[in-house]
Amino acid sequence: MAGIFDRFFGGLKSEAGGKEKEICLEDAVNLINDKIEKKMSLFYPKYDKICLEILSLASSAKDAAEDLGKSSLDKGNLNYRIGTQMQKNFAERAPAVLASLKRPEKNYFSYLQFHVSTLEVIKNVAKITQDNRYLSFFFSDELGRFGKKMNEIAALADALSAALESEKSDAENIKTANELKQNIVLLNKQIISNVTSREEKAKRKKALEDNLASISESNKKKDANILSLRQSVELLNSRLAEEKKKVTDQLSPFQRQFRKMQKYISDKDLAKSLVDYIHEPEKAALEEVRQFRDYQYLRKILSELKKRLEKGEIENSEKIRFRRILAAEEILAGSILQPIKSAIELEDKLSEENHRLETELNSLVNTREMKEEISRLDQQIADLDENERRLKESLEEMFSNVEAIALQVSGNAIKIKRTAI
C-alpha cells in the first residue's frame, strides 16, 4: 500500500509561511488515528475496569451454572425425568456461552466489540433459560443465584455502553477516516482502470479511422472506374438495342406467314427452329449465327416460304406476297447478317464490361461496420470520460472529508496531496 500512496500522494511536506501542511493520505489518516487514540486512551482504564468486572461475574455465573448441573434432584419427584433433562441441557449450554467472553485489547473498538459480545451472551443465556423454563421448580435457589449474576452483568453492560458513548464521535471519526482511505485507494484503481480502458478504445478508434481513411481513398478511386464502366455498359446496351432492333425489324413482318408455314415443314430440326423464329425471332437469329456463323435454318425457312408465296400459297394478298418475297430475298442475300454479327459482338463486349464492373463492385470495401464501430467507440469513450469525472468528484469529496476530520481532531488545517488526480 505504501508504494501506491508514495506514487500517487507523495510524502510528508510542510509549507513555509504558515500555510497548510501538505501531506500524503497515509500520514493524514495516521495523524487522525494518533490524535484520537491519544485522547481515547485516557478512558481505557475505566473501560478495562468494567470489562474485568463483567468477566469476573461471567466466571461466577459459569460456576453457578456448573454447580446447578451438579445439584441432586429427588428421584421421588413425579417430574424427575423432565427436571434432569433440563438440568443437563442448562448445565451443558450456559457455561460454554459464558466462557466465550474474552478480555479485550486496549483500544476503543475492542472494548466496543466486547460490549457487543456481552449483549450476545446475555441474549443467549436468556434463551437457554427460556428453553428450560421449568428448571426453577426444581432448583429455585441455584437458579436465583445464577440469575443475580446475570442481572449484574446486564447492569455493567449498560454502564459500559454509557461509558463508550462518550467517545463514540471520536471512534466514528477513526472508522470513517480509515474507510475513506480504503475507498480512496479503490477509487484510484478504478480511475487507472478507466483511463487504461479509454486509452485502449481511443487507440482502437484511431486505427479504425486511419484504416477507414485509406479504404475510403481506395474506394474513391474505384468509384471513378466504376462510373466509367457503368457508362460503358449503358452505351453498349444502347448500341446492342439498336442492332437487335434492325434484326427484329426485318424478321417481325414474317410472323403470320411463319405460323402458316408450320404445316409444310416435316424436318424436326427445321420445325424446331421455325418455332423459335415465331416466338423469339431476334434471339433465334443471334443464337444460330453464334453457333454456325450463319443463319442456315432461317435461309431454309425463307427459301421454302418464298416458294410457297410464289405459288400463291400461305398468303392470299398479292401485294403482301410481293413484299414478303422481296424481304425474303434481301435476307437470303445477307442483309440481316451484319446486324446479327454486330449484336453478337456487342453482347460479348457487354458481358466483359459487366464482369469487370462486378469485379470492381466486389472489390469495394464495405465501411458500414467500421463506421458503426467507430460510433460505438465514440460513445464508450464519452461514457468513460463521464465516469472518470464522477470518480474524480467522489475522490475529491473523500479527500476533503479526511482533511475535515484531521482539522477537527488536530486543530490544524492540512492539505492532502492529490498527485493521482
List the SSEs and their pairings.
Elements: H1 2-9, E1 21-23, H2 25-40, H3 44-70, H4 80-99, H5 108-131, H6 140-165, H7 168-251, H8 255-261, H9 268-279, H10 281-292, H11 296-310, H12 318-332, H13 337-363, H14 368-410, E2 414-416
Parallel strand pairs: 1-2
Helix pairs in contact: 2-7, 2-14, 3-4, 3-5, 3-6, 4-5, 5-6, 7-13, 7-14, 8-9, 9-10, 9-11, 10-13, 11-12
What brief labels describe this structure?
mainly alpha, two-stranded parallel sheet, elongated, disordered N terminus
Task: Describe the protein's architecture and organization.
The protein is mainly alpha-helical. The chain has helices spanning 2-9, 25-40, 44-70, 80-99, 108-131, 140-165, 168-251, 255-261, 268-279, 281-292, 296-310, 318-332, 337-363, 368-410, and strands at 21-23, 414-416. Strands 1-2 form a two-stranded parallel sheet. The protein is elongated, with a radius of gyration of 54 Å. The protein starts with a helix and ends in a 5-residue tail after the last strand.
